[in-house]
């Protein structure tokens, strides 16, 4: 009777180790090693915007056009924190505050003109070195917002010329 148990024990141990290895590797996903925290610092321009839900708003009604993310906070290899500003197409400051980001989330915190503290918690859908797609829910307007940003210089049209 000792032989079946002794054969079963190593086999069950092997299966346990294999399943642990498979579960661990599945949790990693297909990460290519890119980190949004390394990419986000800089100037990003609105490329496209889609509003999801029933509303009288048009994409043009959301006036933010440029985001400046500064590297003035902390970065531990996963989570970056710093300050940001959102600028309209006409060069007016819309929001100024702090941000936190990792590969899955971008959180903006700011104070509105009337002194209310607000935050936007956006899901990072995808990103590359020079493109970023985020999605968030606007409780104020009861809509979803998809925002595509591109990094770099604005074109002539984007500068309003």
Q: Could you characterize what this model shows?
A:
The chain starts with a helix and ends in a 10-residue tail after the last strand. It has 161 residues and is of the alpha+beta class. An eight-stranded antiparallel beta barrel has the order 1-2-3-4-5-6-7-8. The protein has two domains: 1-30; 36-151, Lipocalin. It contains two helices and eight strands, in the order ααββββββββ.
Q: H/E order of the elements?
A: HHEEEEEEEE
What class do helices, strands and sheet pairing give?
A: alpha+beta
Oligomer: single chain
- The helix count comes to 2
Query: How large a portion of the residues is in β-strands, by DSSP E?
Result: 35-45%
CATH architecture classification name of the largest domain: Beta Barrel
Low-confidence stretches: 2-30
Give the terminus-to-terminus CA distance. Answer: 87 Å
Helical fraction equals: 10-25%
Overall number of strands: 8
Supply Rg: 22 Å
Topology:
Blueprint: H1 2-28, H2 36-39, E1 42-52, E2 64-69, E3 80-88, E4 93-101, E5 105-111, E6 117-127, E7 131-138, E8 143-151
Antiparallel strand pairs: 1-2, 1-8, 2-3, 3-4, 4-5, 5-6, 6-7, 7-8
Short structural description:
The relative contact order is 0.17.
């Amino acid at each position: 009777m000792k032989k079946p148990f002794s054969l079963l024990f190593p086999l069950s141990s092997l299966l346990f180790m294999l399943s642990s290895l498979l579960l661990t590797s599945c949790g990693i996903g297909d990460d290519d090693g890119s980190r949004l925290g390394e990419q986000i610092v800089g100037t990003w321009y609105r490329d496209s915007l889609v509003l999801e839900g029933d509303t009288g708003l048009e994409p043009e009604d959301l006036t933010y056009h440029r985001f400046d993310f500064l590297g003035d906070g902390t970065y531990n290899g996963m989570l970056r924190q710093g300050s940001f500003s959102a600028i309209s197409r006409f060069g007016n400051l819309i929001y100024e505050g702090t941000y936190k980001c990792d590969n899955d989330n971008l959180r903006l915190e700011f104070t509105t003109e009337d002194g209310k503290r607000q935050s936007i918690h956006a899901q990072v859908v995808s990103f590359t070195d020079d493109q970023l797609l985020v999605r968030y829910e606007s409780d104020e307007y009861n809509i979803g917002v998809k925002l595509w940003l591109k990094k770099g210089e604005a074109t002539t049209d984007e500068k309003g010329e």
